[in-house]
Amino acid sequence: MKLAVVGATGMVGNVMLQVLAERKLAVDEYLFVASERSVGKEIQFNNKSYKVIGLDDAVNDQPDIAILSAGGNTSREWAPKFAAVGAIVIDNSSAWRMDKTKKLIVPEINAEELTGEDKIIANPNCSTIQMVLALLPLHVHYGIKRLVISTYQSVSGTGVKAIEQMNNERTGKSGEMAYPYPIDMNCLPHGGDFQEDGYTTEEQKLVDETRKIFGEEDIAITATVVRVPVSGGHSEAINVELKKAFNLDEVTQLLSKTSGVKVQDNPDVNLYPMPLYAKGKDDVFVGRIRRDFSQPNTLNMWVVSDNLRKGAATNAVQIAAYVIGKGLALRVV
To answer: Is residue 332 part of a domain?
Structure first.
């Protein structure tokens, strides 16, 4: 079993290597791949040194699985090339998420939809992954009618340049700006690019991807995405209108039993999820679970997760583990 990590020297790529080392997949050989400017650099992984190779060499090596974390343009060009030599591609970019011929996978929700015919698999947006995992038991038991979402997203979701901007502002340095305004001591209601309808592409992803993952086109969804001066971890305030009446204790129990979800909800001792403590962990943390008294069958919840782990790297590695475990990447000789 040969696995390639494309974008291995990037922010998500570095976290990917950590997750792969922790999870110990049944992989015999790793290929670490990056752009030409990084080719030849050495990467330390599992107490071994690996030289970074380029995309052409990686395709020629015919990996069984290729995890791509190198941006949408790279994925659109290279995912089909890896697939053409027999690799199963797990793509972290937005390139294939809404392609009707590609599956959008959160393993705890819909991994069983995958077959050996799925050569390009899409990894959802980070803010979508944590939200749908927390909403899964509610969707299954009560049905979701409407979602009103406000996100508080870490600058790490924008990339290294954004973290550098925030750190420069905190230390009084001048430098390149990832955002049109300062981010330290500020909040920007601007994630992605603005569309003609006034919403941003990050907000649209929450709408489109949630409907696709749950297979429910009639869920009413509206979102506001905000960038906040946090170095890691996305937070979301979610108002959920359900199709059926619910009991709050039952909701908490259902969430507590959901794989990948941890409930932190005890106001008496100020226990609630925060990005400071979610950073570096794979779980999706849920708290502030309370009834919305303004209308029937509606509740509020607060959801936090590390956007670079479960929101990107961990979810992709979980997909790879499923593909390997089910024998979907085995080549016919």
So the answer is: no
Are residues 86 and 193 located together in one domain of the fold?
A: no
Report CA 138 to chain centroid distance, whole Å: 20
Beta bridge partners of 2: 29
pLDDT value at position 332? 55
126, 141, 187, 190: the catalytic one is 126
* 320 alpha-carbon distance from chain centroid: 14
Q: How far is it, in rounded angstroms, from Cα 305 to Cα 206?
A: 15
Quick check: is 126 catalytic? yes
Please say if 190 is a catalytic residue: no
Same domain (yes/no): 92, 239: no
| CATH number of the domain within which 58 lies | 3.40.50.720
Q: Is the pLDDT of residue 254 over 50?
A: yes
**297 shares its domain with 317:** no
List of residues 6+ apart from 323 with CB closer than 8 A? 65, 88, 90, 114, 121, 329
Residue 283 sits in the same domain as residue 139: yes
* pLDDT on residue 333: 45
pLDDT digits (tens, 9 = 90+) for 309-325: 999 999 999 999 999 99
- The H-assigned helical ranges of the chain are 11-23, 55-60, 72-84, 107-110, 126-141, 160-171, 201-214, 248-256, 275-278, 314-325
- Report if residue 330 sits inside a domain: no
The single residue listed with the structure tokens 């990590």 is 5
Q: Within this chain, do residues 81 and 154 fall inside the same structural domain, yes or no?
A: no
- Give me the count of residues in the chain: 333
Residues of the chain above pLDDT 70, percent: 99
Secondary structure element (H or E) that encloses residue 147, with its range: strand 144-153
Domain identity same for 103 and 133: no
